[in-house]
C-alpha cells in the first residue's frame, strides 16, 4: 500500500483535499454522475453541496454536463470553491477534435474553465491519444482547464505518453475496488507523480453483499459501503461513488470519523479476485 499522502482541508467542506503534481489540489471524495438522468442532476448537485461535496465528475458521454452546470450555478457557492471534472470521448480523439470537444463541454457546463479534463479512454485502436494529449496541454496552457489527466489508462499507455510529453497526467481515473485493487498500477502512479482516482469504487454494488465485508461492517457499526470507501481513503485514492439516492449521498459522506486498522485493511485485501465490472482499456475503442 502506498504511503498515506499529506492532505489539506477543502474550503467549506469536511472532506480532505490531496495534492496534485501540478501544484493544485483535488477533493478526495467526490460525486460521480455517470448514468444520472440530466433532469435529476441539478437537485442532486445542490443537495451534495449542502452535505459538503465540492468535487463533481461528469463526461461528455454521460450527456448530463448541462444539468451539472445548472446545479452548480444555483448551489449558492462561488465557482472557485467547486471542483469540476469532465472528459473527452473516444470519437473526439485528435488535436483539433479535442479542442472543439472541450469548447462544447464548457458551453454545456456554462463555465469558463474546468478543474480537471481527462481523456476518457485511451482507445488504442484509434491510435490518437497522443494527439489528444497535446490538445489537453494546449487547453491547460490557455487556461480553459486547470489540470489535465487521463482515465482508464494502463501503465503502458502512460509510458507512451511519457515519450512525447515532458509532463505526466496528474490523475489517472480507473476502475478500482477491493476486488480490483490496482496495486501494480498504483505503484507506477506513485513513481511518476500520478494521483489514482477510483471509479466503480464499490464494484457497482457487487461488493456490498459479500458476507465477510458485511461482518466487518457490523463489527464497526458501519455500512459495507462506508467501510469500502474508507479503505480507498486510507490508500490515498480519490474516490467518486455515484448515487441518486439522497440517503446514500449522506451515508457515503460519513466516512471521516473512523479508521480501519491494519488487520481490517488486510481483510479487505483478501477480497481481491481481479474481476472487472467494466471493459479492459485495451479492448475499448
From TrEMBL:
The record marks 87 as: Lowers pKa of active site Tyr. The active site is at residue 62. Keywords: NADP, Oxidoreductase. It comes from the Bacteria. Gene3D superfamilies: NADP-dependent oxidoreductase domain. Substrate binds at residue 120. Pfam families: Aldo_ket_red. Residues 36-271 form the NADP-dependent oxidoreductase domain. GO terms for molecular function: oxidoreductase activity, acting on the CH-OH group of donors, NAD or NADP as acceptor. Residues 1-22 are annotated as: Disordered. Transmembrane segments: none annotated. PANTHER family: 2,5-DIKETO-D-GLUCONIC ACID REDUCTASE, NADP-DEPENDENT OXIDOREDUCTASE DOMAIN-CONTAINING PROTEIN. Belongs to the aldo/keto reductase family. This is Oxidoreductase. It comes from Streptomyces oceani.
